[in-house]
């Protein structure tokens, strides 16, 4: 079935939480305190890679699609600055 959704199970939440806290404790926090320059490089790189996806235009299109079931073609939204 092509449109089947994954089934959410509460035990998955607990496993995800454990994995997140383990990653924070074992990787992120030590990097933050021991090698702050490396931590900053990783954060800058992460922002550069993900910033184009996490933006207001995508969020609004996703909301409209989810809330109203409308299929929106991706397009640039620009503020009208006056007569063209």
Report on this model:
With 84 residues, this protein is an all-alpha fold. It has 3 helices and no strands. The chain has helices at 10-34, 36-50, 56-68. The protein is flat, with a radius of gyration of 20 Å. It starts with 9 loop residues before the first helix and ends in a 16-residue tail after the last helix.
Task: Show the helix and strand layout.
Layout: H1 10-34, H2 36-50, H3 56-68
In short:
This protein is mainly alpha-helical and 84 residues long.
Features:
disordered C terminus, 84 residues, mainly alpha, 63% helix, 3 helices, single chain, flat
Computed structural class: mainly alpha
Beta-strand content bin: under 5%
Q: How many helical elements?
A: 3
Radius of gyration: 20 Å
Q: What is the typical, i.e. mean, pLDDT?
A: 82
| H and E string | HHH
Q: What is the 3D shape?
A: flat
Distance between the termini: 49 Å
Percent helix: 55-70%
Given as residue ranges, the uncertain stretches (5+ residues, pLDDT < 50) are 77-82
Described by strand count, sense and barrel closure, the largest sheet is: none
**DSSP summary, beta strand count:** 0
């Amino acid at each position: 079935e092509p449109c089947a959704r994954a089934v959410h199970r509460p035990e998955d939440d607990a496993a995800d939480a454990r994995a997140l806290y383990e990653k924070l404790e074992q990787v992120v926090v030590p990097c933050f305190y021991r090698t702050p320059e490396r931590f900053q490089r990783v954060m800058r790189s992460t922002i550069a890679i993900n910033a184009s996806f996490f933006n207001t235009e995508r969020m609004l299109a996703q909301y409209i699609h989810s809330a109203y079931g409308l299929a929106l073609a991706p397009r640039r939204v620009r503020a009208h600055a006056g007569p063209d």
